[in-house]
Design a protein that fits this description.
By secondary structure, the protein is α/β, with parallel strands linked by helices. It has one domain: Rossmann fold (3-Layer(aba) Sandwich), CATH 3.40.50. It has ten helices and seven strands. It has helices at about 1-10, 30-40, 50-65, 80-95, 115-140, 160-165, 170-190, 210, 220, 235-245, and strands spanning about 20, 40-50, 70-75, 100, 150-155, 195-200, 255-260. It has a seven-stranded parallel β-sheet, with helices on both faces. Strand 2 (about 40-50), helix 3 (about 50-65) and strand 3 (about 70-75) form a beta-alpha-beta unit. Helix 2 (about 30-40) crosses helix 10 (about 235-245). It is globular and about 55 Å long. The two termini are about 35 Å apart. The model is unreliable at about 1-10 (pLDDT under 50). The structure holds NADP nicotinamide-adenine-dinucleotide phosphate.
């Protein structure tokens, strides 16, 4: 894809911008990835679930950074909605060159012996099945096996997959463990088809996700447990994602990259 850009530069035309879909791009890490991607030459399709105002603010920042922005509301846990979302993307931009599977949720701190079945099903539906659905649709468009020209997928996992999150959300940690294995398996399926698949595993990052789990101060409260003694920022996570999406990571696939302040 770099060479295509170079060719169009030589012919005098503006270099083509690559097209990225970021799920859960309204706020937090997804919003940081979207804006940073726009700054680095991507057009960005922004998926989100409910908060249209937040997604519109992120879209405005993407446009300010020079990228095209496309709002694609859809619940990633709803496979039919994901299929429709990719059809909208096809119609607007004719496909995509990158996917960041970022949409994710936590739940209230509970022990496993307190969980309802509905809680665990929701956790896996959004954090795991949603990533499978989005990756399937992206692969059908990007893989050379399907006539595509290649691309990159970055899954957002969590260091929770190593730590287990006992007494907080073991269901979340287990879902992120599935994302680790999904990354490794999918990367090997696609290794000769022009699509790299990697995972960024953030540690505690200062976003609104902690408030949604009933602990708005969690990122700052847990700082003493982090070797660097502070939570990460969404931009610090986005830097790793953007590297994995870029041609600078051309030989990196199946990697699980921890961005955790040493945790
Ligand atoms: P956040 O601030 O809570 O933002 C979550 C985003 O995901 C929002 O834009 C939300 O959309 C969207 N979303 C939620 N459910 C969705 C669904 N079913 N379909 C589509 N979009 C949905 O979260 P964050 O902290 O940035 O987390 C982003 C990712 O990083 C997650 O996968 C999370 O597990 C992972 N992570 C975070 C941390 C951390 O400490 N923050 C650490 C490790 C890993 P609406 O606003 O419209 O609801």
């Amino acid at each position: 894809m770099e060479s295509a850009n170079t060719q169009s530069s030589l012919s005098g035309a503006a270099p083509a911008r690559r097209r990225l879909l970021v799920t859960g791009a309204g706020r937090g890490i997804g919003a940081a990835v979207a804006v940073m991607a726009a700054e680095r030459g991507w057009d960005v399709a922004l998926n989100y679930a409910r908060d249209t105002a937040a997604a519109e603010r992120t879209a405005a920042r993407v446009r300010q950074a020079g990228g095209r922005a496309l709002l694609l509301p859809a619940d990633v846990a709803d496979d039919t909605a994901v299929v429709a979302m990719f059809a909208s993307l096809d119609q607007a931009w004719g496909g995509l060159d990158g996917l960041v599977n970022n949409a994710g949720v936590v739940d209230m701190a509970q022990r496993v012996d307190e969980y309802s079945a509905a809680r665990v099903q929701r956790m896996f539906a959004i954090n795991v099945f949603g990533s499978f659905s989005c990756a399937r649709e992206a692969v059908r468009r990007m893989s050379t096996r399907h006539g595509g020209t290649g691309g990159a997928i970055v899954n957002i996992g969590s260091v929770a997959s190593k730590l287990g999150s006992a007494g907080q959300y073991v269901d979340y940690a287990a879902a992120k463990g599935a994302i680790d294995v999904f990354t490794i398996g999918l990367s090997r399926e696609l290794a000769t088809e022009g699509v790299r698949v990697n995972c960024v595993r953030p540690g505690i990052t200062d976003t609104e996700i902690h408030a949604s789990g009933g602990q708005p101060e969690r990122a700052r409260q847990l700082a003493p447990m982090i070797p660097m003694q502070r939570p990460g920022t969404a931009d610090e996570i986005a830097e790793a994602v953007l590297w994995l999406l870029s041609d600078a990571a051309a030989y990196t696939t199946g990697a699980l990259l921890d961005v955790t302040g040493g945790r």
